[in-house]
Amino acid sequence: MFWKFDLNNTSHIDQLLDREGVTLRELMEEEDVLQECKAQNRKLLLFLSKDHCMQELVTLITEEPPADLEEKTRFKFPNIACELLTSDVALINDKLGGDESLLEKLYHFLEQEPPLNPLLASFFSKTIGNLIARKTDQVISFLRKKHNFISLVLNHIDASAMMDLLLRLISCVEPALLRMEVLNWLNEERLIQRLTELMHTGRDEERQSNASQTLCDIIRLSRDQANQLSEVTEPDPLLAVLESQENVSELLKNMFEGERTEASVVNGTQVLLTLLESRRSGAILTTVGVLEQPLGSARLHVARLVASLLQTCDLSICQEICRLNTMDLLLDLFFKYTWNNFLHLQVELCVASILNHSAHSDHQNPGLQNHEERPATGTGSQLFQHCRLVQRILDAWEENDKIQAEGGRRRGNMGHLTRIANTVVQNLEKGLAHSQINDLIKELPEDCRGRWEGFVGETLRETNRRNTVDLVSTHNLHSSSEDDDMESPFPNDLSIQQAFSDYQIQQMTANFVDQFGFNDEEFSEHDENINAAFDRIAEINFNIDANAAAFEACCKERIQQFDDCEEEEDIWDEKEINYATQIKSRSRYMLHHHPQLGIFQVNLFIEHYLCTDPGWTASFGETEVSSSSAWGGSPQQEGEGQQDTNWASFTEFQPFSR
After folding, report:
1. What's the rounded Cα separation, in Å, for the pair 59 and 57?
2. 0.85 exceeded by the pTM?
3. How large is the C-alpha radius of gyration of the chain?
4. How many CB atoms lie under 10 A from the CB of residue 486?
5. How far is CA 551 from CA 175, 543, 545, in A?
6. What values do phi and psi take at 401, rounded to 5?
7. Tens-place pLDDT, residues 443-477
8. CA distance 536 to 531
9. Hey, which bits of 542-593 come out as E strands?
């Protein structure tokens, strides 16, 4: 069918823009002008960014509209103009923030006598606030040149929009260095002291209330940002003034000096309560508890840098790191931040690099085999003597065991600690620097040396045994524990569970996805080739001959032959035979006693030996005709030359082939 609707997507705004002499007001009359602007309509943006259009938009948000207009339509165009200017479109932001004449026109709004129109004040604050966030450098530079900017803002503090403007200056400036410059500038302008002066009993109540609220918001914002920006070491100057004794004394003086009013007491008390609010500490709530002081990105990157430097195996770098006591600090962090695995990896790499560096040094200087002949700042002695690596490993392990014995959670750095301990043991036993490390271990206190030997011989060995997955030994252990007199082809529940466990713990290799048998193409549609899903069957290579001897031996041992049956048992008695069940049971039996065979191989063996022998036939002779066919059909009419036995002739079946 044909659609009756017009599918032309050209908007009416594009048609207006194609017309000569179109005005800004005509475009602003269109309902979708704001939507088209945010959708980056190129023709519309080029028109709006023209000088006369930008001047008109700024005029609309800074000058009172004619008073003779209807109230519901009086601020329609100023509202649309504000939305267009703050639509966060790069072309408009660049034009407004880069044209000083437009900024001067905006700034002129503050030079009016109070009170300001609250709606226009909100349009002005929103526009300037957007420029502070998007064109920070240009706008901050422009405002700092205006020496009376803070005075004008405070002069209009009765308008709540001026509060928002001050808070945007404090919270929306990025990066942190520029933000600190702005805070210092505001502090030089004595912003906090001048807001505190507005709390005097003789001031207007609206000014008192807004000044009080501004001070409370500055306190909360400054404290929150101080917690979030932990890398900034310079204190917030505005918060420092607010919390100073001089400022608090001035606040109390303004509250009670002269004629006391309820408004001054209430507003001043709000500031005092905010100052006395419990400070939010830098603790972070995580899934494993409260983190009092985060590690931070800076320290983690330094740890990565140290690990990379040590991996260069440069002697001078390693000696300098030892001289600066860097490894001792990294180990302190390793045991303090037990759940930061990013840090744990870097410390592990550092330890391994130091031990390897000691090995390379011994290899390059065979005459210096005794560590006593080395400088005191040697990397190996630094790690074992000054950093007390062995003692720290033992103490941390014992503390973790105690925590787990009390029902606690295993610490997150225990895996990396195990790897560090294994690295030490490996270098101690067969590393190139084993003699040096041996001497260092011998110099440990006697009790510590005994603890280390017991730890290596028992605890660490058992931990490594648990962490090592050996599928072959596990399966052999299971096979040897089975009862020898088990005759049933069906495995018990224990063997089923063990088989599934063996399947779960099998080791995955890099080409696991390829071996698993699936790829992206198999999940796509195969309209042209309906056999595409079965094409890979031909690629399967079953080596039947290689396991034929094992299968024959199993058959002779476990499967009872027809000619071995006892004489009193009539093998021709009618009984229900379920070949599928027998095949499945024999498959399970084969897998249970001969795990080297795969399930597909076992099934193919059974099919091959039981179903494809062309010499196997069955002749059951004649039997009485029943009223219905054994195959579900109606009986044939008796006729000459016909013999109706209602039995299938198995000799007519063709052998199965693959």
Report:
1. 5
2. no
3. 44
4. 14
5. 76, 12, 10
6. -60, -40
7. 888 888 889 999 999 999 999 988 885 434 554 55
8. 10
9. none
